[in-house]
From TrEMBL:
Residues 1-23 are annotated as: Disordered. It holds the Pfam family Bac_DnaA_C. It comes from Ancylobacter amanitiformis. Residues 34-102 form the Chromosomal replication initiator DnaA C-terminal domain. SMART domains: Bac_DnaA_C (SM00760). This is Chromosomal replication initiator DnaA C-terminal domain-containing protein.
Length: 135
């Protein structure tokens, strides 16, 4: 997928993504690609390898980055908890827990600004990429 450059100050304009296809292999492939995009962005932001974020192993710092990636996939990209769970090879309850953890931290202004910036970046990137669109 390649590395994602994270600008120091992203504009606050948000792109709108079309809804994912309902079923079939195209839907699963698009969801996997969107989850990979979220993992790439969260990993780049935290200076961790994206493969570790998508993998099964890792310590506390990788788990925190993975939680952020799952949150971005669910909230910013609009994937259901089940689709995010499939994309990260986790149980939906694990994704729900990760999203709650990230949301709770949004009470901190610095963290909220960081998440808002990442949400803007990921929605613009997903809208820009042809392989993430569907007809």
């Amino acid at each position: 997928m390649g590395n994602i450059a994270i600008p120091s100050s992203a504009p606050t304009m948000r792109a709108t993504l079309p809804p994912p296809p309902a079923t079939g292999e195209a839907a699963r492939a698009r969801c996997r690609a969107l989850c990979r995009l979220a993992a790439d962005l969260a990993a780049a932001d935290a200076d961790h390898p994206a493969d570790a974020v998508l993998g099964r192993a890792g310590g506390r710092s990788i788990a925190a980055v993975r939680a952020l990636a799952m949150y971005l996939a669910h909230v910013a990209l609009g994937l259901s908890l089940r689709r995010v769970a499939a994309g990260f090879a986790r149980h939906p309850s694990t994704v729900a827990h990760a999203c709650r953890r990230v949301e709770e931290r949004r009470e901190q202004a610095v963290w909220d600004q960081r998440i808002a910036r990442l949400e803007d970046i990921i929605t613009r990137e997903a809208a820009r990429r042809e392989d993430l669109r569907h007809g």
